[in-house]
Amino acid sequence: LVGLSIGGLFAARAMEAGLACDGLVLINTLRKPGLALDWTNEAVFRASQLGGSQLVMDLFLPMLLGPETLSKMREKCLGDAAYSPLEATSGIYRLIERSRDVDWDFSWGTIDCPVLVVTGLRDRVFLDRNAVEEIKAEMANVEEIVLADAGHLIPLEQPEILAGALQSFGERLETTSPAAPASDAG
Fold it and tell me: How many CA atoms lie within 13 A of 62 on its CB side?
């Protein structure tokens, strides 16, 4: 399973509920609950109600992205488009709305498969290196890739590096997990 941000927590919770998994990739997921996280989630929600994803991007992208991606996004953001609220029925609205109530207090030490943590150091909204180190220490089989010039949205910022890391991790899982049953299909 691979999850970005809150998606990593959802993947871990799915495993906790019994979903079988050979490996877990957490992209900018590891964080601890607290006032700053609650505040950020509420502020993002309020901004989306007022000005939709355009306002959210204008406000938060400088703190979420590395400089190279941010410079490419400048024309798309801070443009002449008027802000308009997100539709309450849209998927992104529902994700932002519900993120305010997500319980980030998860027992990461219960994960019993190999874990790859991918961290972008330019994430100045959600990244807390102390929390990442504490949570990693709870897990038995964890490795981390740190990307100095990426922020929160690594799949957008450094897709080739991420794809290579995912492929390498998957190949390592194939060599360490039991062989899959042979198929009669042909």
Answer: 6
Q: What is the pLDDT of residue 185?
A: 47
Nearest to 127 by CA among 67, 66, 72, 77: 66
Query: Which one-letter DSSP state was computed for residue 155?
Result: H
13 neighbors 35 (Cβ within 8 angstroms): no
Report residue 60 as tokens.
């938060």
Determine the average pLDDT of the residues in 44-72: 93
**What separation, in Å, do the N-terminal and C-terminal C-alpha atoms of the chain show?**
27
Host H or E run for residue 147? strand 142-147
pLDDT at site 179 = 52
Q: Give the separation between CA 180 and CA 186, rounded to whole angstroms.
A: 16
**Dihedral over alpha carbons 72, 78, 81, 87 (to 10 degrees):** 90
